[in-house]
Specification:
- With about 450 residues, the protein is α/β, with parallel strands linked by helices.
- About 50% of the residues lie in helices and about 15% in strands.
- It has 19 helices and eleven strands.
- Strands 1, 2, 3, 4, 5, 6, 7, 8 and 11 form a nine-stranded mixed β-sheet that branches. Strands 9-10 form a two-stranded antiparallel ribbon.
- Strand 6 (about 320-335) and strand 7 form a beta hairpin.
- The longest helix has 23 residues, at about 1-25.
Length: about 450
């Protein structure tokens, strides 16, 4: 009898949750209709920080939706910084392109390494070209920036620091080469450095720290020559220090390396905002697992934190975190890290997941804002932990439950949620520079 009563109660709660969701979810036009899609997000324009998520790294609709939202926030609400879950040197090449900055582009194409399709795709290119056109009509100091937050660029960040010092301080460049020489054997395969450190081998912690400190000690002299170039070089030195620590601790456990990476991304975001000015309004593009409040997920319950949680502590109600989800369709992903990209069909959302719940809401595309006072009961219902899907650059459909689901309280994780019933993969870019593209075009030489 008790079991039957409990099952009836659960069924009643499920019906109430679904009814409340159907009433709150607002239909959205396709994200290709950028103006119509973006204007639905005017309600978030007063925030100082807008975190825009994704449930996969290879879904076209997520990129197009974030682009449409960002365009609206930039044009109508004064946002002036787009910071993305990407390596600093690669994003810096995009930034020079969109802000029409002088200087020869680096030798290597932006986002040419695995997983190249994550940022080197048609959806990103269309937003980047729009941003360049938008910036063309603005004064230099008012142009919108495009920046990277991540730490995986050990080799290219070292090269960038050395190239900068070769130009401004050859004597300091010689010292930097000696210090970074400690990492030279491991630059192409930094995970081997982490394994060596775990086995008790000599580390390069002091050398990379000393190099960063020596650059910061000369920051007044360096910045006086070219503040933009010094800031880029100093951030690359910060990346080298963070990357050295990341690969050194990665074998100690996923929690330590995850927290180090997200702390670095948060600190980088803060440095970008601080440099531009306290009135800066910023947009972040990153995976749901980074921008949602980790304290409302099994990640946080096990000791991990993320950008979203750190931003919530720093900005409170001055920030908004918008999660994204989908049910079926296809995704661009690899079967294993370093493997070729494939277009894979998405498994239908599992029973007991938020995705299955939204899939039954009757909306092909929707925005659900959890913040209004009249949504208190919906927030309560969606705070009950359920499964949530997270796909990165690797997708393993055969082990999806273990590989790609975690538990979360959705209405505590996000302020709002964007839903797509069926999705398509991103479109990777072809090699080379299109005819007529400027020399600074970031995706080819």
């Amino acid at each position: 009898m008790a079991v039957r009563t409990e099952l009836r109660t659960r069924a009643a709660d499920e019906r109430e949750t679904l009814d409340a969701l159907r009433a709150a979810a607002e239909d959205l036009p396709p994200p290709e209709r950028a103006h119509a899609f973006g204007e639905r997000f005017d309600r978030f324009g007063d925030a100082k920080l807008a975190l825009l998520g994704e449930a996969t790294h290879g879904t076209s609709e997520f990129y197009r939706a974030r682009a449409a939202i960002s365009r609206r926030l930039i044009v109508e609400h004064g946002f002036s910084l787009v910071a993305v879950e990407a390596d600093w040197p690669d994003a810096a090449r995009i930034d020079r392109y969109v802000r029409h900055l002088p200087g020869a582009p680096p030798r290597e194409e932006a986002f040419s390494r695995f997983p190249s399709w994550m940022w080197r795709n048609l959806e990103v290119l269309e937003f980047v070209d729009w941003l360049r056109a938008h910036n063309a009509g603005l004064e230099k100091d008012s142009r919108v920036e495009f920046r990277g937050l991540d730490i995986y660029s050990l080799e290219t960040s070292i090269a960038a620091v050395l190239a900068y010092l070769d130009k401004v301080d050859p004597a300091a460049a010689k010292i930097a080469r000696y210090r970074y020489g400690c990492l030279t054997p491991w630059q192409s395969e930094p995970s081997r450095y982490g394994h060596r450190a775990l086995m008790g081998g000599q580390t390069c912690e002091k050398q990379v720290r000393d190099q960063l400190l020596s650059m910061l000690e000369r920051r007044i002299a360096y910045a006086a020559r070219d503040g933009e170039s010094f800031f880029d070089a100093a951030q690359n030195a910060c990346v080298v220090r963070a990357a050295e620590e990341y690969f050194r601790v990665m074998y100690l456990g996923s929690k330590e390396s995850w927290n180090l990476r997200d702390r670095h991304m948060f600190v980088t975001l803060q440095a970008l905002i601080r440099r531009r000015g306290r009135a800066t309004k910023a947009i972040v593009w990153a995976h749901n697992s980074h921008i949602g409040n980790a304290a409302a997920t099994s990640m946080g319950w096990e000791g991990e934190f993320n950008i979203g949680e750190l931003c919530r502590a720093a900005y409170g109600d001055d920030m908004v975190a918008i999660g994204f989800g989908c049910d079926t369709g296809a995704v661009a992903a690899a079967s294993d890290w370093g493997s070729p990209m494939k277009v894979m069909p998405l498994n239908p959302a599992r029973p007991g997941s938020f995705e299955r719940l939204f899939g039954h809401s009757g909306h092909a595309r929707s925005l659900t804002d959890f913040r209004p006072p009249q949504r208190a009961r919906l927030r309560e219902l969606l705070s009950e932990p359920r499964l949530e899907r997270a796909i990165g650059v690797v997708y393993r459909p055969d082990s999806e439950l273990l590989s790609h689901y975690f538990r979360a309280s959705l209405s505590e994780q996000f302020d709002a949620y964007v839903w797509f019933e069926k999705t398509r993969p991103v479109t990777p870019l072809e090699e080379g520079r299109p005819e007529g593209a400027p020399e600074t075009w970031p995706f080819g030489l």
